[in-house]
Amino acid sequence: MEFVSTLKAELMKAMRNGGPANAIEVCKRIAPEIAAQQSKATGWRAARTSLKVRNPANAPDTWEKEVLESFEARRAKGESVNTLEHGEIVIK
User: Fold this and answer.
1) How many CB atoms lie under 10 A from the CB of residue 10?
2) Are 29 and 47 in contact (CB under 8 A)?
3) Within the chain, what is the greatest distance between any pair of CA atoms?
């Protein structure tokens, strides 16, 4: 949650100071820095992916792709994106 709240604050500040163009820059430049800081502080790996990636290095792995596809199917059936959640313990 700290990642989300920190990123949200940065995005809102960027929107106030320069609109969507500034917010895009936050996602490009600052979000990875926040993720790296959180990963270092917690030992968890934070990453971003999508079914539509611009950078092939950010492509989802098999598990991530399955979860993202289930979100898309649930959204298509009318479930609000605001309530989409998935929880699972994965041991590698």
Assistant:
1) 19
2) no
3) 43
Give the C-alpha separation, 81 to 62, whole Å: 22
CA 51 to chain centre: 12
Are 47 and 58 spatial neighbours (Cβ–Cβ below 8 Å)? yes
Helices 2-18 and 31-42: angle between axes, nearest 10 degrees = 160
Tokens of 33: 């820095």
| Positions of the chain with pLDDT under 50 | none
pTM recorded for the entire structure: 0.62
Q: Which of 47, 81, 77 is nearest to 64 (CA)?
A: 47
User: CA 18, CA 9: separation in Å to the nearest integer?
Assistant: 14
The whole-angstrom separation of Cα 26 and Cα 66 is: 28
